[in-house]
Amino acid sequence: MSKSVLVTGASSGIGRATALRLAARGHTVFAAARRLERLESLAAEATGTVIPVQLDVRDADSIAQAVRTVEQTHPQGIDVLVNNAGYSLLGPVETLSADEIRDQFDTNVLGLVEVTRAFLPAMRARRSGTVVNVSSVLGRMTVVGTGVYGGTKYAVEALSDALRLELAHLGIDVVLVEPGFTDTDLDTGRSEGSSTIPDYAEVETMAAEYVEREMKKAISPERVADVMVRVVEARSPGTRYLVPRRFAGLIALLNALPDKASDRAKLRSMR
Ligand SMILES: NC(=O)c1ccc[n+]([C@@H]2O[C@H](COP(=O)([O-])OP(=O)(O)OC[C@H]3O[C@@H](n4cnc5c(N)ncnc54)[C@H](OP(=O)(O)O)[C@@H]3O)[C@@H](O)[C@H]2O)c1
User: Fold this and answer.
1) Residue 149 annotated as catalytic
2) Would you call 139 exposed, middle or buried from its count of C-beta atoms within 10 A (0-12, 13-18, 19+)?
3) Is the CB of 87 inside a 6 Å radius of any atom of ligand 1?
4) Domain count, the chain
C-alpha cells in the first residue's frame, strides 16, 4: 500500500537517499530541509512523487508551515514521519562551548520533539501512523569525543522509548533506526582546530584517527534507506534497527563488561 511520508533532513545523505528510495517504491514523499534548491533538484531527479517542503526544525513557524503544506494535499495528515535531520558536534566535552552544545541539542533533540508534536495530532485523530527517529550507534555506546553528539542520540533513544509506550494505545508505532558510520557529508558542527585546550591534543588526534578509520568502513546512505523502506512498508515494524547489524555484538559486549574493562577495551581499540 502506498503511504505518505515526511522525511526531515532530505536535502542530503541518509534523508535524500530515503526520499529517493521511498518515491521509487510508489510512496508520496514530503522532502523537508532548509535548503529548498536541493529539495527541488531531488524532486526533479526522483522517480515518483517528491514534494519539497522548506523546514527548519528549530523554527516553530517553519514547522507550522510544513504542517499546512502537508494538509493542502493530505488533510488527514501523513502516514509516516521520519525524523532524520541532524548533525554531529564532535570533540572532548570540555572543549565544546555552551552555545555549540545548546545548538546541537536544539537541532537533534528539541527539533525532533517539536516536529513530532506537530504531526502527532493528525495521527492520534486517525489512530494510526508511524514515527521513525534516526538515532545512531553512538546512541547505544560512547567513545572518546562523542559525549555531546552521543548525548543527543541517547536522548532520542529515551524519547522514542517513552513515546512508544505513550502512543501504543493510539495505534501509533515509534521506531528507532540506528546507523553506524555512513558515508555522507554529516556536519561536525565545528571549525577545524577550534579546541583551545592543549591537554586534549592527544585525545583529539586519537578520536580523529578513529573516525577516519571507521569512515573507511562506512556504509552507504542507500543501505540505511533500504532499512527505512522496510520500516515504512512493515505491517508491524520492530522497535530498533541497527544498520549494519554487526554493531549488535559490540554493543552487547561493551554493555556486559564492567565499566572499567569496557573503558580499557575502547581506549585500546581507538589507539
Ligand atoms: N553519517 C553518519 O555516519 C551517521 C551515523 C549515524 C546517524 N546519523 C544520523 O543520520 C541523520 C542524517 O545525517 P546524514 O549523515 O545523512 O548527514 P547530512 O548528509 O549532513 O544530512 C543532514 C540533513 O539534516 C538537515 N538538517 C540539519 N539541520 C537542520 C535543521 N535545523 N532543520 C532542518 N533540517 C536540518 C540537512 O539539511 P539542510 O542543511 O538543507 O537543512 C541535511 O539534509 C542525522 O540525524 C545523523 O545524526 C548519521
Assistant:
1) yes
2) buried
3) yes
4) 1
Q: Which domain holds residue 172?
A: 4-270
| Averaged pLDDT, groups of 10, the chain, 271 residues long | 97 98 98 98 97 98 98 97 97 96 98 98 98 98 96 98 98 98 84 74 90 92 98 97 96 95 92 81
Cα–Cα dist 28/112, whole Å: 21
Ligand 1 touching residue 9 (CB < 6 A): yes
Spatial separation of the C-alpha atoms in residues 187 and 162, rounded to whole Å: 28
| CATH number, domain containing residue 207 | 3.40.50.720
Residue 228: name the closest of 2, 14, 49, 1 by CA: 14
Cβ(146) to ligand 1 under 6 A? no
11 lines ligand 1 (CB under 6 A): yes
Give me the amino acid identity at 45.
E
Question: Looking at ligand 1, which residue's alpha carbon is closest to its atom 2?
Answer: 182
pLDDT at 192: 54
DSSP string, 85-117: ------S-GGGS-HHHHHHHHIIIIIIHHHHHH
Give, for ligand 1, the residue of 182, 185, 240, 251 to mutate: max count of ligand atoms closer than 8 Å to Cβ.
182
Q: Residue 98's pLDDT is what? A: 97
Q: Which atom of ligand 1 is nearest to the CA of 182?
A: 3
pLDDT at 14: 98
Q: Is 211 in the pocket of ligand 1 (CB under 6 A)?
A: no
